Amino acid sequence: MTHFTKARFTKMAGAAVLAGTLGAAASAQASQLIFPYIVGSSTVSTVLTVANLTPAAHPGNGDTQLRYAYMYKAGASATDNDAACARTPTFTLSSATNDVQSFDVSGKFGASTRGVLFNDPSVNNDWNTGSQNWAALSGQNLFRAVGFVDNNNDDTGTSYPAPYLYGEAFIFEFGSGAAWGYQALDDKGTGGAIDVTKFYQGHHIPFSFLGAYTRFAFMPTTEFSTRFFVTPIIADMDDVTLQGRVEVYPYVNTDQVAYDRDGNPVGGYVSQTVTCVGGVDIEEMMSGAATTALQNGGWSRLAIVPPSVAAAGTEGTLFAHVIKLEFNKGSTFNGQAMGGTFNNSIVLRNPRGFYVEE
Asked: Staple 274 to which of 125, 173, 211, 230, CB 3.0 to 4.6 Å?
């Protein structure tokens, strides 16, 4: 386990840390979307929506086609947080200026329409032709993935690339009717390579360097499941030969995991390692004694650090995209009976960009 103490960085120092840790920005430039968490199972589908604002006659033909690729874990590896991802080929699929397209990556919905949903006309974007298929992970019953979409613009001049793509993810647990979602991350990059400094500044990606700075609260563990979907951020996100890897754990002070609902610190955190993409429950990051002491909930900071033990084919990083998801374990809320199910998702961000707290 890696321990750090608190420090303060200026914006210039933070930029230097970024450059030294993540490497140079990508040379190829495009308007790119990154979907940091995609999941599929027998009862869950992820529907992605992509709007293409690329103007006509755009370099790279982004007005008529987009490129898609996925890093994914399937089967038993899907729930192994430290397992490496596999990679799909890069798919070039039809599009059109101002077109919007929704599709089920798993193909459970829209199986007869190439994964494309909601009566999408195949006119300006003639998607219903050839061997095109938007359900790229339809052969996987259980998976976690990260998705990349870009408009293949290779013009690095001042006019391009503009933020011509927009995306949303709708994660649908159709077995119970619960759903949650998020906006895709946008970036000036291509093929999974990102312009890391601008990417971090624009999205306030959580990071921990000489401290833990991404604060969060959590509900009672007796009634709520609190899960963190973690996607490590590195300069080339879809390089299957060198994948991002982090250690994560809740931390408020040396050997203390969180504060309880009366402001008392509780000790006993346990670090967890994530490669490529993963999901970590709050209880997995606390000792048994801490879980008992914090069963009514509390607040903490999420430490994100390079793993203390390196692994072949990975790159340790102190940057990650993190979504906190809360959902009910049973049929009570605050001890009172309730019906139905609920999900609540929050994207965790470093609230001050490079200006981390003291």
From this structure: 230
DSSP label of 184: P
Distance CA 72, CA 229 (A): 14
Contact assessment for residue 107 and residue 74, using Cβ atoms and an 8 Å cutoff: no
Phi, psi of 333 (to 5 degrees): -140, 120
C-beta of residue 182 within 8 angstroms of C-beta of residue 317: no
Residue 352's pLDDT band, with cuts at 50, 70 and 90, is low
pTM value is 0.88
Residue 211 φ then ψ, to 5°: 160, 175
Q: How confident is the model at residue 176 (pLDDT cuts 50, 70, 90)?
A: confident
Q: 137: which 2 tokens?
A: 């992970």
Cα 115 to Cα 103: distance, rounded to the nearest angstrom:
5
Q: In what order do the strands lie in the sheet with 224-232?
A: 278-281, 224-232, 320-328, 343-348
Pick the residue with more confidence: 17 or 41?
41
From CA 275, how far away is CA 32, in angstroms rounded? 22
Distance (Å, whole) CA 49 – CA 183 = 10
